[in-house]
Amino acid sequence: MAQRITIIQGHPDPSGNRFCHALADAYAAGAAAAGIAVRRIEVGALAFPVLRTQLDFETGAPPPAIAEAQEAIRWADHLVIIYPLWLGTMPALLKAFFEQAFRPGFALGRGAELAWASPLKGRSARIVVTMGMPAFFYRWYFGAHGLKSLERSILRFAGIKPFRETLIGMIGTFSEAKAKAWLAKLEALGRSGS
Is the pLDDT of residue 119 over 90? Predict the structure, then answer.
């Protein structure tokens, strides 16, 4: 069981009233009830620019908000990444966050070892994705390509594994009972630290 968890809540709406926010709250409550230390990164509330050049990615200094997020990621032994599916993948702001945070020297090696150093090795992750379509359809018809890209092109390169997935489909049709059931499931996952 994880002892230190950082939740990366990736819904870009900073108002805090989306189902992704509620899922993050439920997971955090479960983890805290189990005595697990939790930190949280609210990507929608962070101020940072979009990277525009390879030079900046490889040699630039991360903005202060990103440096704080990097410390929260480094501190954790388990990451929970929660986001809504937008156009088949993560929202652009969350992708921009990963581009800023997962730079060479932090999540990737430098130079010839760029893709093989795995600086964040030893950490695990759970990825929670909400979507309007049925989750099985996203896997079967679309091949879950956006999720696979996060797992294979970002997390695995940084050495983060294993990773587990929780896909929550048809959220626009949820009854109150169904929403509560998913929140209870996330709270249980938080209690187990997985």
Answer: no
pLDDT digit string, tens, across residues 50-102: 999 999 998 999 999 999 999 999 999 999 999 999 999 999 999 999 999 99
In order of 27, 109, 129, 150, the CA distances from 194 in angstroms are: 10, 27, 15, 18
| pTM across the whole model | 0.95
Residue 106 DSSP symbol: T
Angle at 107 between CA 106 and CA 113, to 5 degrees: 95
Split into its structural domains, the chain has a count of 1
Segments forming the whole domain that contains residue 132:
4-192
How far apart are the C-alpha atoms of 81 and 62, rounded to whole Å?
A: 20
> What CATH number is associated with residue 86?
3.40.50.360
Q: Is the pLDDT of residue 143 over 80?
A: yes
- Reported as type and span, the H/E element at residue 163 is strand 163-168
CA 153, 154, 160, 161 torsion-angle sign: negative
Answer yes or no: is pLDDT of 116 > 60: no
In what side-by-side order are the strands of the sheet with 78-84? 37-42, 4-9, 78-84, 124-130, 163-168
Tokens of 17: 């009233």
Distance CA 40, CA 27 (A): 11
What are the CA-CA distances from residue 11 to residues 17, 20, 102 (Å)?
Answer: 10, 6, 18
